[in-house]
Amino acid sequence: MALTLEDVKRVADLARIEIDEAEARSVLSQLNDVFKLIAEMQAVDTRDVAPMSHALDVVQRLREDSVTESDRHALFQSVAPQVESGLYLVPKVIE
Amino acid sequence: MHNATLKSLSASLAARAFSSVELTRHFVNRINRLNPKYNCFITLDPERSLKQAEAADRMRSAGTGQPLTGIPIAQKDIFCAQGWLTTCGSKILSNFTSPYDAHVVERLNAAGAVALGKTNMDEFAMGSSSETSHYGPVRNPWDVDKVPGGSSGGSAAAVAARLAPGAIGTDTGGSIRQPAALSGICGLKPTYGVVSRYGMIAFASSLDQGGPMARSAEDLALLLNVMAGFDPRDSTSLDREREDYTRELGKPLKGLKIGLPQEFFAEGAAPGVVKAVEAAVAEFRRLGCETVEVSLPNMKLSVPVYYVLAPAEASSNLARYDGVRYGYRAPEYSDLLDLYKKTRAQGFGQEVKRRILIGTYVLSHGYYDAYYIQAQRVRRLIARDFAEVFKRCDVIMGPTSPTTAFRIGEKMGDPVQMYLNDIYTIPANLAGLPGMSIPCGSDAKGLPVGLQIVGNYFAEAKMLGIAHQYQLATDWHTRAPKGID
Q: Inter-chain contact A55–B380, Cβ cutoff 8 Å?
């Protein structure tokens, strides 16, 4: 199954990556090469095989419902592009 | 000093033959002189390194020194280190000074190791050549027109060029082992969960694993002793009793059963690589090992499975780079959506974007079962192949990479060719098994060949012992690239 130019543009939109026509075209042929490679595993019969998400199938640990982190927002916001009064600034979303 | 192993440097520091400040200064000078040639390091901060060295010397004087106290270690730029620029080889993190330390960095600091600098790498560890870095390609010290392998190519080249006695790297599909092989050094990817992923910038979380890179198996063991350990901040970190990874270094190999998967020696591997690996296997037979032919019938599916799982996980992990909380932000944009799209279009390189697009596609509505779930099912088949094989042998051996180092630029235009480089290393990541690469010869052009050793879960100490015994009997690991004095 081959991807179309529309697929590439739709996926780029979902991934929030701006892409122009020329770039979409060159990416399209590269992606189709990769999907040709991926097709090799799609033909395998896996009816009775459970999906494996992690190597050792460990279970999630639980912890006490207690405060473990101190407030370090000033430190963490010190590397942000734009901050005001402890808030991250972005373009206006609601008029 | 720079030709000594980490182990012997440690002994010299303990004996006060020289101080950590002297040792660190020596490596800093060497880096200043040679790094422009190899481009191993993205960030250096000699002042900070020397401060750590002074503290290490005080630890030694106070009698609280440990094996790594005062040893300069190069850190792949994927590990967050507080106060250090941490870029992951990407423009999108080109202004990111980490506000915290990765677990591995905390442990190295606590052991008194000196952070020597942050090493160059493929952007977000996506690559097998260290060419996709925003900071330019790393050059192989054995031949500067060749790649050092990747993605931990800066760490590998730094160790090969004697710019650091040891380094730390990460391995998602071979990113420690393949550059170790192509650069003629040793590297170990531990069992998934042995080294905490906390503060290690995420690529594909179900596969990512940090590990040591150095010039001998013994040095890897010393590094892993510090790097490994339970960390509750990584949900997949394994809560196990502490191990001493040096404990099997002295163990004779007599009676050890080595499995040789026929798929590792099939067509695709360069003749020079096969020849060197076969000679290494013959050496192991001389040392008293038995060999048995085994098969990993689903191995050929590893690359297709990997290129579903890794991009899928990456597309999710890299969603966090939005130009709002940290990192690069596009200078001009019209609204919030445009801010995201322009920031990501300008901040990510071609290969990273390609993988995000693949990942977004395979996770999108209607395709999830056909791609992601199917890949996870085939992943289990691959893991089962290993389980069968380990009923018949103690470890598996084969080439780390199908070829020796290739020319810079040679595979950049053809992603699939680049991806096939990791055919021998990806299976261990999918199964979560420990794998390592050690130098075992060179091809007709004099480029190093890596021998891969894959063990069962938690067999790191055994594998390090096997490699050490081989290194007592051979000298491939001591050879330096031409022109490296």
A: no
